[in-house]
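Weekly structure sync, notes
Attendees: PL (lead), two postdocs, one rotation student
Agenda item 3: pending single-chain targets
PL asked that the sequence for the first pending target be pasted directly into the notes so everyone works from the same version. It is reproduced below exactly as submitted, 446 residues in total.
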Amino acid sequence: MSDQRENFSRRITSFFSSLSSAVGLGNIWKFPVMAGLFGGATFILCYFFFTILIGIPVMISEFIIGRRTRTNAVNAFDVLGKPYMKIAGVLGLIGSLFIVFFYSSVAGWVYSYIFKTISGEFNELSGQTIQQAGEASAGVFGKLLNALWAPAGWQLLAIAMVAVVLILGVKKGIERLAKILMPVLFILIIVCAIRGLTQEGAVEGLKFMFLPDFSNFDSAVILSAMGLAFFKLSVGTGTMTTYGSYFTKNTNLPGTALKVCFSDIAVSLLAGMAIFPVVFSFGLTPEQGPSLLFVTIPLVFSKIPLGTLFMLIFFISAAIAATMAMISLVEPVVAYLSSKKSFSRNKAVFVVTGAIAVVGFLTVHQQSFFNKLSTFGLDGVFASLGIKDFFGFFDYFSQNVLLPLAGLLFVIKLGWIVNEKVFKDELTNEGTFNLGVYALWLFIMR
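Predicted structure, written out during the meeting:
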């Protein structure tokens, strides 16, 4: 029997809520970082391929399972009479938690940079040479990472914001915030992209993004692009199954998935246009890894007119994206626990966010005793994968193992195991839409 749960009130709020899960720091932080590390346009094309031909079918699968069962990502398989497939939902929930364990740390960095911008901590960069300003900006980021309490405090603030919204519930919390903040996010990131494109080196940045060099195309690019597609769209985490369970019966599932995916791609490109043109304008390299956003943005914005204002806009955009994405990742776990008689929604929120705060602490201090796998004798186990700390551990296994595997199981279940009538009825809203859509998506999924 399915859970008694709230529904999103309208189709537009279903879209914004689903979009808030797909659009997050993955667009503003992780997408530019990985594009920079894996060759720009070649990686981006590969990412687009996996987003469209794998991400969309998996998202639709989760939407169908969620709306059909009206329950969480684990119990849905009981409702469909296939309890042995629960492993897909369980892997998805574990993947969600793995992401939030390190994601909350990065969200904390973003929150802290809003404060640093407002307090004028980057003002002195404007009077320095590029080299001096670059070193100073890197120093600010390094100081944050190695501070004793500040990173954990900012991480806890990000987690607390998520807890407050989830306690308010689906309509008063998730839906209300999504329909306000997602349009704001789009406007802010467009403003930043326009500013980036007006830089003298914008052409080089655009070439890096849109002119592929296939000499650097290898299996690492393919695996990373596929993992990012799952990570970015929150597919395989159970998030879209949970959100699908809140959809009304007249929600167009294929249409919603298409709009979410293409909007997600648009935000990723806008974020790249905001970052790479200014990176090339100042003679910087895009292969800086996780520090790309936090070192280069203060540097480049400090050197342009109204830079402080645009820097503040950028980090506010990143904070909105981070908060909404974290909410969507935590909600499936909360929904699962809330289905248990011993858990109220409030209790589930406190238990889950408390666990995230405790385990997430391992990822906060990049060079600390607690973050290193060697502290727990695990460094040799993952050395061949290049994983040295818990931040990298949670990142690698969520993106490259748990989410793709869970997504594959969702598709196998819906494409080969569940009665085809279930799929057809949900995908076409019981025949309201063209049955050709059903045939196409069944073929792609199988």
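Discussion points:
- The chain has 19 helices and no strands.
- The first helix runs from residue 11 to 22.
Action: rotation student to compare against the earlier draft before next sync.
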